[in-house]
Amino acid sequence: MIAAGRAGERGARVLLLEKNDRLGVKLLITGHGRCNITNKIDSPREMAEKFGRNGKFLISAFSRFGVREVIGFFESRGVKTKVEKNNRVIAESDRAEDVLDALIDYMEKAKVEVRSNAEVRSIEKSGNRIEKVVLSSGEEVFADRFVICTGGKSYPATGSTGDGFGWAKALGHKVVRPAPSLTPVILKDAFVKELEGLSLRDVRISAYKDNKKFDSGVGEAVFTAKGMSGPLIINMSKGIGKELPGEVALKIDLVPDLDFTELDARVRKDLQEGPHRQIKNCLDMLLPQKLVPVITRIAGIDPGKKANCITKEERKKLVHLMKEFGVHVAGLPGFERAVITAGGVELGEVDSKTMRSKLIENLYFAGEVLDLDGPTGGYNLQVCWSTGYCAGEAAAVRP
Description:
The protein is α+β, with helices and mostly antiparallel strands. The chain contains twelve helices and 18 strands. The protein has helices at 2-9, 44-49, 59-64, 67-75, 96-109, 163-170, 231-243, 260-273, 279-282, 292-299, 312-323, 379-396; strands at 15-17, 36-39, 81-84, 88-91, 113-115, 120-126, 129-135, 140-142, 146-148, 175-181, 185-187, 199-209, 212-223, 227-229, 248-253, 325-331, 340-345, 363-365.
């Protein structure tokens, strides 16, 4: 939408082909329906670093149409924004619909023609130029330039089924194998069902493969019916996926502000101050109530046992579980639950300033179809805005 709007704004006659019966189906579910527009990082280089080794490709696009420009773009179209935890930029109204409406208005003013229920069956070329697009209806669409903005394979129910990867390959491009990225984690542990809905704030989670730590972070997580989700888990999922199959475990430090010695002293103090209280009621200040029966059971302690009857060994077990509450990874749920797709069109075959293909002279790419994936928190939508804007602008310029 932003590529089409920018091309139209620059004077090009633009046709947007939409496979779904309406625009923005996937956009409307981002940020749990609130649309996390971007992340408040002003430096293009710092933003690009969030995308790992492929991030350098984005420096030019972020410099041309970066965070400030995106916020300004939406605010000038009536979408006021606010900055929340971890610098997430959200529509002030908490409505993704407002973001979509602004994009639709942008296209309407740029006189972009939108055709819905227009599924592309194939793209045909002659030499190093695309000649036409053939729709599933058999209709042929001719144009001077073509921009592929089909997204990846995540949330296929929204129409994001990886079509662009197949077209890119057919046109001669290399495609880095697509893989689900930013997903929840499925766990083996039976007690997970007891913890469903439990949110953990400011915890440290470390990931281990065969008892060797390969990742760690601090943030928010939540237990689900089958495992764990939340920003911290989702951002760690890509690294976890690379270590599977194999024995992958997560150790959750529920009290990261205290080391083992400090936590042991704190637990001992709490037990001494309520010697006749049951142990399950002594842990409330340090643990969520939902977690207490699980931890006492794993520690082998009767939750009804009085505080003054807890042995030193039992106290040490409790402290250990608070600092290293272990869960075991069964796997990742796949594209159906993935926020984005890792992999995509090889970046070396795309001009980073214009998003133009280096193989097909009238082809441009933008968004998730490219081999770019960043953490959760607005980073990946920023890629869509920036690359889409650059592609639309370049495609509108006549040679």
